[in-house]
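A favour between colleagues. Tell me how you read the following sequence-structure pair.

===
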Amino acid sequence: MMTSSKPKPGMQYYVLAILAFVIASFAVQATSHFVLNADHYAAVGFMRNEPIMALGIFTMIVQGAILAYLYTFFYRDGAPLLRGLKYGLLMGVFLGSYLTLVEPAKYIVPSIRGWMIVEGLASLVQFSLYGILVGLIYDRACSQKVNAV
């Protein structure tokens, strides 16, 4: 487990990190599903015509809470953008691999290759954006605690 000499962020920074995940996820996934790749998703036979948005948002909050907590073990001194991006990409490979690789293995999708490209790129953008945001949020949290001492 990685440790850090940095102080732990306060609760408001956990909440900001969770909100950052919800915002990054919603922005990227909604844009992908409803704007850029609407035809791709419309061709998938197992999709709901009207998604249950409350379940999706709840899932983003749960995932965001876990990711915000785990980042406290990951962050260290150094460039917050790069550190956050590395974390985001690591978590994106972990969580995005299910969407990208397992779902087309379980469900009949029009194009496995197309599915992997769409989901892989969306996950890459979503988790890169989140990683940068969480890196900046926690860097600010820790900088303020150090300056307050």
DSSP finds five helices and no strands in the chain. The chain has a mean pLDDT of 85.
